[in-house]
Amino acid sequence: MRALIFLLLASLASLASAAAPRPNIVFILADDLGWADVAFHGGRAPTPHLDRLAREGLELTRHYVAPVCTPTRAGLLTGRYWSRFGVTSPQNERALPPDTVTLPRALKAAGYATCLTGKWHLGSSPEAGPNTYGFDHSYGSLAGGVGPYDHFYKKGPHSVTWHRNGKLHTETGHVTDLITEEAIRWMGERDEQPFFLYVPYTAVHLPVKEPQAWLDRVPAAITGEVTRHYAACLMHLDDAVGRLIQALERAGKRDSTLVVFTSDNGGSTAENNDTQYPADAYPQGNLPGDNRPLRGKKGDLHEGGIRVPTVVSWPGVLSPGKFEAPVHISDWMPTLSALAGWTSDQDLKWDGSNLWPALSGAEAAPGRPLYWAAPGFRARAIQDDGWKLILTPAKGQVREKVELFHLTEDPHETDDLARDRPDRVSALRATLERLAERDRDAMVQH
Where are the beta strands (DSSP E) in 348-441? Predict the structure, then answer.
């Protein structure tokens, strides 16, 4: 019996020493992708690679982000609410203090190689670019979404924004292809060192203008010039995600790589031919970003602005299915840091939580309130225990607007219960105000 116990203990020790290595991490962020833009949520444009990822991976059905781009990126890379940095709108000024412990800095300290290919938009000057915040290699737009062929941002001091490692340059090619090719090239140069690859695409942000080869693939049932270009942009993005996954498979690294796909905010219905951009014969008309059946769009605190299509995949480790608990963009830094085996020797004041035990099925998802600040702090929201409160401050002759929804029973926010449940409004307001006390506590000092 003693011999059997000894053999059992020895076997357990051997298994522990042979534990799976830390995963590579590929985090893919679409731009302005609506809830129903993807085919696995009923979209009309085919997205076979994303459909497969959703089918074979774990779909996070309640993954929340900011209502616009820069705040989401701040939350992802810091584990904190964007409002703590005073960041609520798209901005070209430095968004994060230079000494901020970011996700790439943490992973780099844990021995990871780090790379960003795509859109940064957390400071549009080279000195505030990705390399300053922990990325070994960076490429793409220092500013926001760019013209797909000329790679120019909006007219002004940051219009010329295309770079490699902070050095501005020009090159030819469609933005989606260039971002993908750089990512594949960088992955191909990796050896056994674990890596973190962050791929924030500009698709499907305006202005959309797709190559004829992609327009030819759009189903004939989809009509209208902007609508067809938008569908082609979605299909092009889907193909790019497929190419990234195929590169991992060819390198024999797919089973050792955690892949996350999500969007920075909900779909947009803005005019595609935005005259703030240098002219390049862009199709005219409103974007058809589709957030149905969710209410609202990009910029809103209703679900259509902040709840986005999201899948996480790690073959052989994460079981396929749907994860129904609320997940926040700020959860990724604690989660990925834990997976990488990195811990901080200081309090990073994270708002996010390590969700890996819940995602992997080892524990129940934690219950906690989630907080949002809209662009310009023009509104705030909180979600807790299935309830959601949105407060829009009084302005001029307009009184404060109070909206209350029970998302468990009313996920599409059709029934405002604020008048019927003043007790719930009061309780949620108190929690919101407590969290809002930390707004602007980590702002860049100019």
Answer: 370-373, 380-384, 387-392, 401-406
